[in-house]
């Protein structure tokens, strides 16, 4: 940090892995648009026991402005948490980044709900049998493979 540098301190209590990932995505989005991390102490994690329960605080320290000077870190953090901002500012570069991270989360959730499939080959023919298929459906697909 140099004299006169303005910083943006982003501090959050992290209760779950999802909280940690969301915070990491926010910081990744900010750095992607040109908000640099603080040179001296960009990341700090503290854990303390409060009434027998662990409390985890994560602190990210970034510069207040992007390298180009066009983007304000605090305003972008507000935009990240505002679900309407991306539609109102659809052509803003940060809207594209935010949407990409949200889409990645939605896709990951959808993939997590899908059952894998078994690929069964018989000569040049094959069958894709979902692992969660009922036994009757499995048998139907395997019988069709034999024909």
Q: How are the SSEs placed, and which strands pair?
A:
Layout: E1 7-13, H1 17-32, E2 43-50, E3 53-63, H2 73-81, H3 85-88, H4 93-113, E4 117-122, E5 125-130, H5 135-146
Antiparallel strand pairs: 1-3, 2-3, 4-5
Helix pairs in contact: 1-4
Global mean pLDDT: 93
DSSP, total strands: 5
Profile the largest sheet: 3 strands, antiparallel
Q: What count of helical segments does DSSP give?
A: 5
Helix content: 40-55%
Major β-sheet strand ordering: 1-3-2
Radius of gyration: 24 Å
Tell the overall outline: elongated
N to C succession of SSEs: EHEEHHHEEH
Q: Extract low-pLDDT stretches.
A: none
Name the structural class.
alpha+beta
Number of domains: 2
Protein model, in words:
- The chain is an alpha+beta fold and 147 residues long.
- Helix content is 42%, strand content 26%.
- The strands form 2 sheets. The chain has a 3-stranded antiparallel beta sheet with strand order 1-3-2, with helices on one face. The chain has a two-stranded antiparallel ribbon with strand order 4-5.
- Helix 1 runs antiparallel to helix 4 (93-113).
- The mean pLDDT is 93.
């Amino acid at each position: 940090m140099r004299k006169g540098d303005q910083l943006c301190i982003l501090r959050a209590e992290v209760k779950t892995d999802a909280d940690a990932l969301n915070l990491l995505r926010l910081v990744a989005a900010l750095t992607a648009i040109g908000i640099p991390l603080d040179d001296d102490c960009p990341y700090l994690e503290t854990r303390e026991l409060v009434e027998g329960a662990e409390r985890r605080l994560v602190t990210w320290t970034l510069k207040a402005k992007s390298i180009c000077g066009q983007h304000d870190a605090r305003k972008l953090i507000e935009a990240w948490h505002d679900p309407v901002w991306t539609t109102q500012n659809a052509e803003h570069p940060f809207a594209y980044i935010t949407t990409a991270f949200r889409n990645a989360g939605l896709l990951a959730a959808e993939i997590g709900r899908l059952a894998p499939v078994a690929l069964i080959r018989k000569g040049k023919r094959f069958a894709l049998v979902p692992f969660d298929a009922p036994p009757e459906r499995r048998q139907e697909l395997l019988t069709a493979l034999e024909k």
